[in-house]
Fold this sequence. Notes:
Blueprint: E1 3-9, E2 14-19, E3 29-36, E4 45-51, E5 57-59, E6 62-63, H1 89-112, E7 121-124, H2 130-139, E8 144-147, H3 150-159, E9 164-166, E10 179-185, H4 194-204, E11 205-216, H5 221-226, E12 240-241, H6 244-254, E13 256-264, H7 267-277, H8 290-298, E14 311-318
Parallel strand pairs: 7-8, 7-10, 8-9, 10-11
Antiparallel strand pairs: 1-2, 2-6, 3-4, 4-5, 5-12, 11-14, 13-14
Helix pairs in contact: 1-2, 4-6, 7-8
Amino acid sequence: MQIVRTFDSLEHGERQEEIACPLCGSAETELVLVGSDLLFGRPGPYRLVRCRGCNLQYVNPRPTGEALGVHYPKEYFGYEKPEDAAWPMREILLSFARGIARRRLGYIEAVTGRIQAGQQLVDVGCGVNGLLRTIREERGVVGLGVDFKPEVVDYVRNTLKMPIVEGTLANAGLETGRFDLMTLLEYIEHEPDPASVLTEARRVIKTGGHLCIEIPHPTGWVARTFGRHWWNLDVPRHLVFYDPETLGKQLALAGFDLVKVTPFTLPFYVGASVLQALGQRSWNRNKHWVPLVAGALGAPFLPFQLAMPEFLFAVARAR
């Protein structure tokens, strides 16, 4: 991936970089929208652009790799354990997490078949290990987690008693051709260099094995309707936005064939976008009540879920 230039942004208080398209390398773009950090309320606007060559959407300019760390403080919700929440939120979050894991398992097995004993599984960016925990409970198969947060690694290893490697896919040191299945769930959109991530994924997945990716759906109804208030925009943590066509092209370059893409939504996320459109900012300061309100606002959309996909769940086969 080509970095065109780096510079200090006084507006953002960080080092930034301007890049060429992560998919096709073109530097010709058009502006899609200007967003801001609505999760933690950090300063400065971020530009979402569309490549004129291949239609990939990505943030440009963006924080450098070194500057990105400040956008993932310890309060980032991806690292919070549902068990730590106060009742009744604890039970709601646990039920929500189990439901998400079972849905993901269903999407995976619709392509790969039922996960069997002896298969090698790895979840990169596993967080608190919700998916692998469900697979262990329902299929009796223990997979390997990978996450770069030491406190997450400690929780998975010492509380859940499950195997985990501290690091990223790039530095985890996984063996070539070891895995039958790798999951990158709500992961690839955070990566500054997704092409290299997918290339490394192909190295460690067996030929004929599968890679599962869950990403925001940038051309769906919710994204188009809410624009800069879309919950899943989440700049600058989300850097690259693939639609099925651009994802298929990126996967093909890494040695995968895209087998199936399933669009879906969760009413909570639609409610979160409604809240942001109504002016909600700095979610972390209100995290004890905002999820309940977002859930209530999203409930009326339940009958229309199929018409408003907000995520894409993609399964690809290693060739």
